[in-house]
Design brief:
alpha/beta; 11 helices; globular
């Protein structure tokens, strides 16, 4: 908002009566800003999108510490950021080609995933990551969970992380979760054909207003969070394409059930 208004960090600091260094810390998410100061900044940046400003002000309000804060100093910030953006999303979509969605994984399956890294992780580090991954699932519970749409390629369903028994239990777990009203699973069969992207995991988190959407792409170096409109348009289109060639939810359930029965 500040950059769009061609306002320098020095000017913003003078407007809000703070040091320039605090503006940098606020914009990097390391320091808080009060809703009042945020509205002052929005007014002076000529931002007239009231729904956007209201959503930002709500984010700036004092919030209770999230459960993920218990892992700060033990896991990389990227892990914590994923949990936080999931917690505040109003809707989530994801696409997975190699493994099932992390937020839907069983303990044994997640353990196998984290053991397959280079260089290998010590056992206690694997256990820490698995514990964090399982805690992420609580966002799908409760009285008003966000809608979650997981698009899973058939290849991921055939991958036997942890062996046949673990893979079967994971497929059965997917079926159980897919019975929840807020969880939708759609499978892309091999016959679905081509789709855009390099096969990497893509997560798309919808905020309270579109300008607060976030896309996240997994890599061996950790998650990359994308916010620019052109980037968001690209990943929305990619997910739309993959959704179009996927099976309907009920057909996807039958597909997963058949694979599980054959293991």
């Amino acid at each position: 908002m500040r950059i769009a208004a061609d306002m320098s960090a020095e000017q913003a600091a003078g407007l809000l009566g703070v040091d320039r260094s605090k503006i940098s810390q606020i914009e990097s998410g390391n320091r808080a800003i009060s809703p009042e100061r945020l509205r002052t900044l929005a007014c002076n940046c000529a931002c007239t999108d009231e729904s956007y400003v209201a959503a930002l002000a709500d984010m700036a309000s004092i919030q209770p510490r999230g459960w993920w804060e218990r892992y700060r100093g033990a896991l990389s910030p990227g892990f914590l950021d994923i949990a936080e953006v999931e917690w505040h999303a109003v809707r989530m979509r994801s696409a997975h080609v190699v493994h099932v969605p992390g937020i839907l994984q069983t303990s044994d399956y997640a353990t196998a995933v984290f053991q397959a890294v280079v260089p290998p992780l010590p056992a206690h580090e694997v256990a820490l990551r698995v514990a964090h991954r399982l805690e992420r699932q609580q966002v799908l519970e409760g009285d008003d969970p966000p809608e979650y749409l997981g698009i899973v390629h058939e290849a991921a369903l055939h991958m036997q992380f942890g062996g046949r028994k673990v893979a079967r239990a994971q497929l059965e777990h997917l079926l159980t979760l897919s019975e929840r009203e807020s969880v939708i699973l759609r499978v892309i069969p091999y016959e679905g054909g081509a789709f855009p992207g390099a096969g990497q995991t893509v997560n798309y988190y919808e905020g309270p207003v579109p300008r607060l959407d976030t896309a996240e792409v997994d890599s061996t170096h950790g998650p990359a969070f994308l916010h620019q409109e052109a980037q968001l348009d690209k990943y929305r289109a990619q997910l739309d394409w993959m959704e179009r060639i996927s099976l309907q939810p009920n057909e996807s359930q039958d597909f997963i059930r058949d694979l599980a029965n054959r293991l």
